[in-house]
Amino acid sequence: MTTFAELAERERQTAPELVGQDIAILDIERIKGRFTGEFFDLNDYKSRRIHPDDVIEWPRTICLAYRWYGEEQIHFLAEWQPGGWEQMHREVWNVYDRAQIVVGHNVVNFDSKKLLGGWAQLGLGEPSPWKSADTLTYARRLGYESNTLGALCDRFGIPSKKGHYDAAVARAAADGDAEAQAIIADYNCGDVEASTWLYDRLRGHMPGHPHVMVPGEDGDTLRCNQCRSTNLERTGIRLANRIAYTLYRCRDCSANVSGSWHSRVARTLGVAGR
User: Are residues 232 and 197 in the same domain?
Assistant: First the structure.
């Protein structure tokens, strides 16, 4: 059995066909809001709901990190950099506007939603449509007891997850503490590194991964939806209610890929009663 230590010694298994295809891997960091206490959500206090009129300061995104898939460089943006909170949001708007796919851990229900709110505050329209590859969604299919980024890094032997979120450090960074800013920048970039490794480790287990199509290049070429490989082996058929589809397995990442319509297997369909 492969040990975690042996896994950690391996190089990340980058999918070469995905490099240069405008896939952004992203993570944001936020600070708690304030009223007479601190909160992330209006329901944080079990005894009572925080009334919006009592809010002194709303939670907000203070920094974020991202990289383009296949590149080593991780870019870091923060509200304490020139241009502040507004410039940070404008720059990440450009990332989304370019990206075909945005990858992250809980990126659909957290990172992207929070950024959408920031863009709306600034009066910015939405970026060009993008697809999401959420590693949390894919990990939940696998039956693990915990699907936090840290727990998954431990399970897969990924050495890059750095520490845990510290609300006090985040607040100090937002208040101008240079040491705290360096700490949260390192943590934020570490999450992007860890998310990149996890994205590669989960390949083959992401059936809903969006296709990356290259106009004028792909044509009728059959490709794996998870790694864009053309190294597919026909393995049989996949049955739907009335239609059979050709089934392939990717020889590079082991994903199952459903091809085009193959044949009709039934001419009737059951109907539920009212």
Answer: no
- Which residue range forms the structural domain that includes residue 50? 4-201
**Higher pLDDT among residues 8 and 200, named by residue:** 200
Q: Which two tokens stand for residue 234?
A: 């026909």
Q: What pLDDT digit, counting tens, does each position of 47-85 carry?
A: 677 788 888 999 999 999 999 999 999 999 999 999 999
Where is the domain boundary, 143, 167, 201?
201
Q: Are strands 60-68 and 131-134 parallel, antiparallel or unpaired?
A: unpaired
- Using alpha carbons only, what angle is made at residue 33 by residues 44 and 162, rounded to the nearest 5 degrees? 85
76 forms bridges with which residues in the sheet? 65
d(CA 131, CA 128): 10
SS3 99: coil
Give the per-residue SS3 of 181-194: HHHHHHHHHHHHHH
Nearest to 136 by CA among 119, 121, 122, 153: 153
Amino acid code (one letter) for 166:
D
What would the pLDDT profile of 95-136 be if each residue is shown by its tens digit? 999 999 999 999 999 999 999 999 999 999 999 999 999 999
- Stretch 13-26: mean pLDDT: 90
Listing DSSP states for 105-147 in one string gives TTIIIIIHHHHHHHHHHTTPPPPSP-EEEEHHHHHGGGT-S--
Residues with Cβ < 8 Å from 147, sequence gap 6 or more?
136, 139, 140
CATH number, domain containing residue 187:
3.30.420.10
Helix (H, G, I), strand (E, B) or coil at 43: coil
pTM of the complete model: 0.86
Name the helix (H) or strand (E) containing 68.
strand 60-68
Mean pLDDT of 154-164: 80
pLDDT value at position 271? 65
